[in-house]
Amino acid sequence: MVTKLAQFHPDKIFPEFSAKFQPTWDSIYNDNLQGKEPVVEKTRAHAIFQLGMPTAKLFEVIDLDQELN
Fold first, then answer.
1. How many whole angstroms separate alpha carbon 7 and alpha carbon 21?
2. Is pTM, for the whole model, over 0.70?
3. Are the C-beta atoms of 52 and 13 separated by less than 8 Å?
């Protein structure tokens, strides 16, 4: 699925979550960049983790909300 998304050459990735969870997802994403997976199964099963993070990693996104800052 990530490979198919990449074929569209997206220039922005906007995972949908409440702003109050931004620090949590930033932490999970930074851990993921270092090769660490979340301990919580629900997090690993979440669409943001399954699609958003691998797509962001493929396009070398540094920060999940870098386009918004």
1. 29
2. yes
3. yes
